[in-house]
Amino acid sequence: MHKDIATPGRTKAILERYGVSLKKSLGQNFLIDANILRKIVDAAGVSSDTGAIEIGPGIGALTEQLARRAKKVIAFEIDGRLLPILADTLSPYQNVRIIHQDVLKADLHAVIAEQLADVSDRMVVANLPYYVTTPILMKLLSERLPIRGMVLMMQKEVADRLAAKPGTKDYGSLTIAVQYYTEAEVVMTVPRTVFMPQPNVDSAVIRLTKRSAPPVDVSDEETFFQVVRASFAQRRKTLFNNLVNNLPGGKEKKGLIEQALVAAGIDPRRRGETLDMAEFASLSNELAPLFA
């Protein structure tokens, strides 16, 4: 067994040897606790049948733990300075492929078809860069990839939003988008002290298991998400005010919006965060003909 990359001494030595300074702009914080990385791999249920997709491998600390258990690992790295480091640190593992590309611009369906056609189980497992967590997450969800799910490390505050329940301060449009596609659960909290350099916030690991079908029936998905976003536009405003002010042409359709709320059995004076997903679905189904 090769020595873990994720120790303070080894991480420091690797960065010094290659003269790499970490880029704040890329949200580079490297984990220096191999135990936590092993727990992440456990949470993802990675086995010899798994093809793992990683985003932002850094110097390969999580990649290495995945490579020891998965059949294959595909990792997207945007920072060209890290490619020679990864070639070195991951040289003992023949089942890793590094793709030098911004994952937000990648054709993930094509990569999966090309690289992971021969695996029966596919998981995204990643320590996401803080500054692009939401765009990456939304891409992974909306593209409906042929994967079992995702285990992601992110800012604790964002993870709490993804797993939030209606009526709580963390509950919002991101919660609903994520829970529409997946079942979300926070697996563990990760203290800032196990990163180099230390970020200003704690992190958490969240497991998102892909649903076979959304938990609610919506007649038009685009309208559904539009209604959800409008409902949370200004948290202190009533649902009715938010919809009138934030749906396209809402002011002209004031009376119709009110009728739709009544038809869906929802009090117009409620606030967005009090509605569960089923209520949003019935409201958007009433509104869909007005905004189609």
Description:
By secondary structure, this protein is an alpha/beta fold. Helix content is 39%, strand content 17%. It is built from 12 helices and 9 strands. The strands form 2 sheets. It has a 7-stranded mixed beta sheet. A two-stranded antiparallel sheet has the order 1-8. Helix 3 (61-69) links the parallel strand 2 (50-55) and strand 3 (72-76). Helix 6 runs parallel beside helix 8 (173-181). The longest helix is centred in the last third of the chain and has 15 residues, at 277-291. The radius of gyration is 21 Å and the shape is elongated. The chain starts with 7 loop residues before the first helix and ends with a helix. 39% of the residues are buried. The mean pLDDT is 94.
Number of strands: 9
Terminal residue distance = 59 Å
Computed CA radius of gyration, to the nearest angstrom: 21 Å
**Poorly predicted sequence stretches spanning 5 or more consecutive residues:** none
Helix-strand sequence: HEHEHEHEHEHEHHEEEHHHH
Number of helices: 12
User: How large is the share of residues in beta strands?
Assistant: 15-25%
Structural class: alpha/beta
Mean pLDDT: 94
Main-sheet strand order equals 4-3-2-5-6-9-7
> Can you tell me the overall shape?
elongated
Helicity, as a percent range: 25-40%
Please outline the major beta sheet: 7 strands, mixed
